[in-house]
């Protein structure tokens, strides 16, 4: 087992995620420097809620909708929970296109568990 590879991997994980508390603190201290994007794939009636102020761009539409995001802001991508890979997929797309991005650690599940503000999901994904 290569310790250096593991340390590099763990550092990359830490650098690529923010906890819900860190996101709220960052949004409060620098509100014009952050853009929260909900990348979940589901109709609004299934998603029900999204983090307050988050833009809904399902990961399958992200490449076509990059113009809705600012390269001058930190993009926080959120998804269902810690086992969902959609935020990682979105992060790759955004990084490849020159955006600064982090994943909301724990996704919307942890966001809601912390009782952070949510609003009704309104985006209807056409299947």
TrEMBL record:
Residue ranges constituting the Rhodanese domain according to the UniProt record: 30-120
Gene3D superfamilies: Rhodanese-like domain
InterPro entries in UniProt: GlpE_sulfurtransferase (IPR050229), Rhodanese-like_dom (IPR001763), Rhodanese-like_dom_sf (IPR036873)
Signal peptide positions (record): none
SMART domains, alphabetized: RHOD
PANTHER family (UniProt xref): FAD-DEPENDENT OXIDOREDUCTASE, PYRIDINE NUCLEOTIDE-DISULPHIDE OXIDOREDUCTASE
Protein name, entry field: Rhodanese-like domain-containing protein
High-level lineage: Bacteria, Bacillati, Bacillota, Culicoidibacteria, Culicoidibacterales
């Amino acid at each position: 087992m290569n310790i250096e590879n593991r340390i590099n991997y763990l550092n990359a994980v830490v650098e690529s995620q923010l906890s819900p508390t860190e996101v709220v603190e960052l949004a409060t201290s620098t509100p014009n420097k952050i853009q929260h994007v909900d990348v979940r794939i589901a109709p609004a009636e299934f998603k029900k809620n999204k983090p307050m102020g988050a833009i809904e761009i399902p990961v399958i539409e992200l490449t076509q909708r990059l113009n809705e995001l600012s390269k001058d802001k930190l993009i926080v991508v959120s998804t269902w929970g810690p086992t969902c890979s959609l935020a990682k997929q979105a992060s790759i797309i955004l990084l490849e296109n020159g955006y600064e991005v982090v994943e909301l650690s724990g996704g919307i599940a942890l966001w809601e568990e912390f009782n952070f503000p949510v609003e009704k999901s309104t985006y209807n994904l056409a299947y």
